[in-house]
Design a protein that fits this description.
Helix 4 packs antiparallel against helix 5. It contains 23 helices and 5 strands. It is 67% helix and 5% strand. The chain is globular, with a radius of gyration of 25 Å. It has 2 domains: 2-34 and 66-376, no CATH class; 381-496. The protein has a 5-stranded mixed β-sheet. The chain is mainly alpha-helical and 497 residues long. The longest helix is centred in the first third of the chain and has 33 residues, at 2-34.
């Protein structure tokens, strides 16, 4: 009787899983079709795609950007084929993110019951980070997709033929060209295959491991020689990633980053210690009862990430930068609740799982709705550029901050973009502002273009700029987060000083 009820429950969960999967794809398509303007980081990366040659993408990128070469080359190819700026650049992240939804559903079904798989998939389908990656011209969706391919390879490795293992060993390290962070999982894969090969040693089992190590070393060496050497040691990126690098006290740093690493993919920001406890329980269950090879992959990946942070190569935890860890955390989350389902009375667990699934869906949806302005509008520099073209005259100079310059280069009229005077500062610095103003001839009136990130700290903005200028007019679309100011300089007062 209990078995038949369980089968009925799982029979209902399978269609529910497909509904969640389709709903997640529809949400992503809706935001993609809405076609918001490129925001600051997207515009900075897009400026490299639009304004430079293919060869430039293999060197140091402009606007302090870092991205895998294959992702850049494929994005440029799609842009040249389609032509529409936002749609073409966001198409690749959208496709690989939707494919990742399907892959994570198949992986979850290998590790947990359909009901638990559906509950965990809702975190990925409706969670803000995953939706953001899908509609964002950055490489985070590629990091997620490559991580899932490596996890799938671990599931297939032990049952595959020797020829298939050799093929996987040679081909999987090629993912480094699409996702730098796949290197962490590839190190975890080497550890997983090494542990498995030691249990059943033979030449046939050792050959794929040697091929995997050799292919990983060769691809990493070529990638470094051609592209990555321009990114490693980048002073701006190292300062930007500083919080993810070890700092005293080490215990507090490690605990804080470890909780964030486990909590973020599961959308448990409100309980990071709880998220870590759930994932730890799930890891132990995977190691002992479900799939030790996956547990070894997780352990190797974590160790590789910690070593990279100590070498100051890549931050241990940095929000979107650790997208590669998401499928591993979700698997641990699913394994934990699958264990509870098997160990607790089914009637009790079914009721609890139903309430938990509903709670997760509601919380994920609420967080996504709270963040919906950034998913729908963000920086509408596209609208600002159009309004400026209709308003500006040839004699009025244009100033643009560092944060806004890339977006304005993309959306501003070419002639205006070329005459724009770029400020060095991010948040407007009073000294930089004054020096730039004097070098440009101390104009009494000028246009000032800023990004939403410049305007994040209202008091800091006016403390630096308000003492030098007063606002005459503001051009701001209803959906716009990027703001264009027309400002007036009190030239007489400042000159007397």
């Amino acid at each position: 009787m209990i078995l038949s009820e369980s089968k009925r429950w799982d029979g209902l969960a399978i269609p529910g899983l497909w509904v969640i999967l389709i709903a997640g794809v529809v949400i992503r398509l809706g935001i993609y079709i809405h076609n918001r303007s490129l925001w600051q980081d997207e515009a900075a990366l897009a400026a490299n795609i639009v304004g430079h040659s293919w060869g430039h993408l293999l060197g140091r990128l402009d606007y302090k950007q870092v991205a895998p070469p294959l992702f850049l080359l494929l994005s440029k190819l799609v842009y040249q084929l389609i032509g529409h700026l936002e749609y073409s650049l966001r198409l690749l992240p959208l496709l690989v993110n939707c494919a990742s939804l399907y892959l994570i559903s198949r992986i979850l079904l290998r590790l947990a019951s359909p009901s638990i798989a559906a509950m965990t998939l809702s975190l990925c389908a409706f969670g803000y980070p995953y939706i953001d990656w899908a509609t964002n011209f950055k490489h985070y969706s590629s990091d997620l997709f490559c991580a899932l391919l490596i996890v799938l390879a671990v599931f297939h490795w032990q049952k595959a033929s020797d020829r298939t293992r050799c093929f996987l060993a040679i081909s999987l390290p090629l993912l480094l060209w699409l996702s730098y962070t796949s290197g962490f999982l590839l190190v975890g894969l080497v550890f997983s295959v090494f542990v498995w090969s030691r249990k059943e040693p033979s030449l046939g089992r050792a050959r794929p491991l040697l091929l995997l190590i050799g292919s990983l070393v060769v691809n990493a060496a070529f990638l470094y020689a051609i592209v990555a050497r321009h990114s490693l040691g980048h002073s701006f990126m190292l300062s930007f990633w500083a919080k993810g690098f070890p700092r005293p006290p080490l215990v507090a740093w490690f605990a804080q980053n470890l909780f964030g690493l486990f909590g973020a993919p599961c959308r448990l920001f409100y309980g990071p210690a709880l998220a870590f406890a759930i994932c730890l329980f799930g890891f132990l269950r995977i190691l002992r009862k479900q799939s030790p090879a996956i547990a070894h992959l997780m352990a190797g990946t974590l160790v590789a990430a910690i070593i990279a942070s100590f070498l100051r190569v890549y931050p241990f935890f940095g929000g979107r930068l650790t997208a590669y860890w998401s499928p591993l955390a979700l698997l641990m989350f699913a394994a934990c609740f699958d264990g509870l389902e098997r160990d607790m009375p089914r009637s009790v667990f079914r009721t609890g799982a139903l309430y938990m699934a509903l709670s997760i869906a509601v919380i994920s949806a609420a967080m996504t709705l709270c963040a919906s302005p950034s998913l729908i509008s963000r920086e509408e520099m596209r609208d600002v550029g159009k309004r400026l073209e209709m308003t500006i005259d040839a004699s009025t100079p244009v100033f643009t901050t560092r944060a806004a310059s890339a977006a304005f280069e993309i959306y501003g009229e070419p002639l205006i973009g070329r005459k724009a005077i770029k400020l060095k500062s991010h948040l407007l610095d009073a000294r930089d502002f004054a020096q730039t103003w004097r070098r440009s001839g101390a104009p009494q009136k000028f246009w000032l273009i800023i990004s939403s990130s410049d305007f994040d700290d209202y008091r800091a903005f006016w403390a630096s700029v308000g003492q030098y200028c007063e606002v005459v007019d503001v051009i701001k679309e209803a959906r716009s987060a990027a703001v264009l100011y027309v400002v007036h300089r009190d030239a007489t007062r400042r000159r007397s000083e």
